[in-house]
Amino acid sequence: MLVYRNRLLTPGPVELHPKALEALSRPQLHHRSDAAKQVFLQAKRGLEQAFQTQGQALLLTGSGTSGMEALVQNLFAPGDRVLVPVHGNFSERWARIAQQAGLEVERMELEWGRVVHPEYLEGPSGPFQGLLLTHSESSTGALNDVQGLAQAFKARFPQALVVVDAITSLFVSEFALEGWGLDAAVAGSQKGLMCPPGLAYVALSPRALECLKPRGFYLNLASELKVQNSGESAWTPAINLVAATAAVLEELLPHLPEHLALKQRQNQILYTTGQGLGLKPVPEVQSPATTCFYLPEGTAYPQVKEAFARRGATIIGGQGQLKGKVFRVSLMGYSDLYDAYAVAELMREALRSQ
Amino acid sequence: MLVYRNRLLTPGPVELHPKALEALSRPQLHHRSDAAKQVFLQAKRGLEQAFQTQGQALLLTGSGTSGMEALVQNLFAPGDRVLVPVHGNFSERWARIAQQAGLEVERMELEWGRVVHPEYLEGPSGPFQGLLLTHSESSTGALNDVQGLAQAFKARFPQALVVVDAITSLFVSEFALEGWGLDAAVAGSQKGLMCPPGLAYVALSPRALECLKPRGFYLNLASELKVQNSGESAWTPAINLVAATAAVLEELLPHLPEHLALKQRQNQILYTTGQGLGLKPVPEVQSPATTCFYLPEGTAYPQVKEAFARRGATIIGGQGQLKGKVFRVSLMGYSDLYDAYAVAELMREALRSQ
Question: Which helix (H) or strand (E) element contains residue B261?
Answer without folding.
Answer: helix B256-276
